[in-house]
């Protein structure tokens, strides 16, 4: 077992990043023109990195499986992006954002990285405003903020419920400028099939043109992987259907350690599962918890009557409603962190108080907010003694201005008007805090291979606070990687172009072709989706919101057996040499079948509960997560050794010099 070197700079926490930038090597502008960088993934992290690196003068190639970078899954982020600007004057600061993030991650994050994230957060907002991102503004014209879970300040900048889309358009416009300058060569509808190593360094990738089926070789002096998370290992998640782990897993198989795979975030406010026909789940932004109140009936008979359609939720008197988050966590109420809110919803539904037909849903109610906003609007409009209908109408107008597109989306999917009846929500797989292990420079354990955004094991520990994904992606892409990658590339100014006709590229391409032919040679009994759904059920039932030793051991065996059956019996029509979406899916599911087993192995070895990793054997008397800081205060990074069961554990000890470790409390 090795001890990992995170390359954290010495000195006081607040000075580390500045000192590091002053100490690292740079590449002069003339030499940058002779250096090539590949960026795989063009969401917020990849798009921001590609645009910035090209602006600096590097020659950049970008790859995405979508038909345009505009369709990266970053577009789906709704609620907002955190930054410690303290525009509200409510006591926010870089330190407060740093502290909230470390605490929210249940003390399983790296201090230096998280402080840097907080430090550059304000720059992100300035950058995006300059790009024209239409952040919401308050009446005086200043940028508006709202609150998210796990914090006591308002620091989340937003653009209605379309924040990810607007930020992505900003990054894409910056990319387009570089494409027009010839500094970015964009390869859309291309999928990375493998990482190519030359003399132990990442020197390129093998990619497949998803339209023609052609296998291509692309070389570079460094490779950046910014391909998002692996939530689709559960099949049903809030991720786009195409989201996958392939690029990260290919790098893992070549020597990049995979860290904390079991740290997965369950988001508490998703539209509940409606049946076996579903292929994905839809998120309702956490921003709705600013004004929505979460409840279930207090009495079992009321819950049963609502489930059976004999009673409407609006018919229940206030005293018959259990606002369980406000009851259990009075200091934070409905704005507790996601892992806490998710477990609380599951606990109520498991106890029999669920409110939809399956019994797996709770209410998110805006009636109080509509009344409150309506009265305020009436007062500011000079209306005296308005009737209830007027108050309701005015209140709905305010709520529509803040959350209108989210309400519209809910109504289209569920066919219920959330202005008139409470939304139904339930937890679902959302974000993955695990990913490729990276050091302070965002470099993996493979020299020259970097990872940014959700694809790396990130700054979020065991649970990501809301509105931090966009912050981390853009921080990595705009403000961290462009500095740190230069230190590595400064040693390549005399290297020259990396040839693609080398034995290493030959071997990598051969392995890719052999793998695809093996996939195509299955006996053809079951479809790819058959295996993906079976894997998803194992993962959700035994590695989901709660885990225990017995079921994790069962999951490891079941996933191993399922993987064997997949390779023998999967059915993939069509050919390798043409557009073949079943072949695309098969390659991704094959990697999920390996990742799923490592996920369960990681969860089994971590004998504690922390953040989104909830082991039933390790909980307090009140049902809260029970950490074991003496034995598990480390990042678990796994080295590929063939089968997932043989993966070797390496530890990065987490040192806290600026924050006192405490049991999290939101009461």
TrEMBL record:
Membrane protein topology class: Peripheral membrane protein
Molecular-function GO term, any one: electron transfer activity
Keywords: Cell membrane, Electron transport, FAD, Flavoprotein, Membrane, Oxidoreductase, Transport
Domain Fumarate reductase/succinate dehydrogenase flavoprotein-like C-terminal: 532-666
Cofactor(s) needed by this chain: FAD
Pfam family, one: FAD_binding_2
Highest taxon, organism lineage: Bacteria
InterPro entries tied to this protein: FAD-dep_OxRdtase_2_FAD-bd, FAD/NAD-bd_sf, Fum_R/Succ_DH_flav-like_C_sf, Fum_Rdtase/Succ_DH_flav-like_C, SdhA/FrdA/AprA, Succ_DH/Fum_Rdt_flav_su, Succ_DH/fumarate_Rdtase_cat_sf
GO-annotated biological processes: anaerobic respiration
EC number(s) reported in the record: 1.3.5.1
Main localization, broad class: membrane
SUPFAM superfamilies cross-referenced by the UniProt entry: FAD/NAD(P)-binding domain, Succinate dehydrogenase/fumarate reductase flavoprotein C-terminal domain, Succinate dehydrogenase/fumarate reductase flavoprotein, catalytic domain
Entry annotated with the keyword Flavoprotein: yes
The FAD-dependent oxidoreductase 2 FAD-binding domain, residue ranges: 36-470
Keyword Oxidoreductase recorded: yes
Catalytic center residues: 338
Similarity section: Belongs to the FAD-dependent oxidoreductase 2 family. FRD/SDH subfamily.
NCBIfam families: PRK07573.1, sdhA_Bsu
Protein name: succinate dehydrogenase
Organism: Flagellimonas chongwuensis
